[in-house]
Amino acid sequence: MMKLNPFFLLFCLVLCFIISGCSGPQKPADLPTLYPCKITVIQDGKPLQDAMVYVRPQDGNLRFVFGGKTDAKGVAVVKADGQWEGVPEGEFLVSISKIVTPSDLETPNETTPLNERRRMQEQATKETKETVDPKYSDLVKTQLRLKVDKKAVQEQYDVGAAVDLSMAELFPGRRPL
Question: 0.85 exceeded by the pTM?
């Protein structure tokens, strides 16, 4: 009976992974050259954790979504479609948002009666809060800009004092989904 060398088996396994393309998703052909981008967010003089940072081309080209979530140090690594680190060369609008939802918020299920579902949705609209001023969190109103010139970018934005705006205040007259 022939005994197989363990190094030969390991070599075959590695070769199979290489051939099968287990390296993750392939970059789209139309993805432009990306430059590393880290954005630090400060609020009330401290790093803002768990904020969403969105970077949108000023020209309105939305083929890819650029953004990231801040860590404990307030730093977001910006990625294209959440997969490829960086942003292309250009000028961008930046919005920073931190939505806080109460942990005890009731959520409907498939058997929840319609009137109860509406009550839960109205409660969620009142109790879910945006903590970043709309002049920074609203992508239409944002005063934040980012310019990328064929090199890595590290930018810091101070979004001022925390606010406490409910979704009902931010979107008056709109019903939640």
Answer: no
